[in-house]
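FAQ: What does a ligand-bound record look like?

Like this one, built around S-adenosylmethionine:
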Amino acid sequence: MTIFEAYNDCKKQLQAAGIEDYVFESKQIIKHVTGYTNTQILTKYTENLNKFQQDNLTVIIKQRLIRYPLQYIIGRWNFFGYEFFVGPGVLIPRSDTETLMDVCLETLKDKQSPRVLDLCAGTGCIGITIKGECTAADVTLVDKYEEALNYATKNALHNNADVKIVQGDVLKTEGAEGQYDLIVSNPPYITDADMQTLQPEVKFEPTTALAGGEDGLLFYRHIASEYKKYLAPNGTLAFEVGINQSEQVAKLMEQNGFENVAVRKDYAEIDRVVFGTLKNV
Ligand SMILES: C[S@@+](CC[C@H](N)C(=O)[O-])C[C@H]1O[C@@H](n2cnc3c(N)ncnc32)[C@H](O)[C@@H]1O
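The answer part, i.e. the structure of the complex:
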């Protein structure tokens, strides 16, 4: 089977299974199986796949047909121009979270050597990217779970990011030390009801990275009230939020004394980030 035939066959099977992005995904799968770049594929599309590549392709298509996430199959994913290893046990970085990155970098742009705390760090995509974009920052990443911490450690090394990675339970206010100019978090925020209706791919991601309690606000409530003592004067707290959570999160930040609380929309025009500053600590 040639690369071109394999690509067409993959597209056909993914489309039939109702996978929305079947063209994009088929390209990614063929690149992964052959190890070729986009340009190489364009010039080598009449080449035959060898037996190993063909067997690998068959297994990958089978995995996708049961909706195992493409990102876990490929094993790495791009976030804000940086590459992160991903796999079972860790949340796949989402492009929505790039909006949170924009807000963080705006907050840090005039600071000399800011201290940053990334709570519920997962792959480390937020904290590691901040360190990559703002090299003078002193960044600490906190997560409770071993699998996530292993990915964060591997990803920090892969991206040459000199960050501190700490195991800690955010709901017990662990992992912070001293004062921070920015505390950022994309915590688990799915409500108990919505946990029952997850997309098939998301069901393969760890529940511990998704479930945010009955109303989805468990982590926001705790972080806004218990971590504010770790913010430096004029420090910023920035959250990613789920659909329809921005008003409630903004309100609970205000109730905790945060000022200039603002909401930022993502590329799909959905309220995605809520952030504010704490003046009087
Ligand atoms: C929504 S994921 C976000 C991961 C990453 N920040 C991102 O944006 O892709 C939430 C993360 O919170 C971690 N987590 C869940 N409960 C926690 C807790 N009690 N304390 C610390 N981390 C926790 C999960 O392991 C997961 O990595």
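Follow-up question: can I read anything off the structure? Yes, for example: Residues 89-278 form a domain with the Rossmann fold fold (CATH 3.40.50.150).
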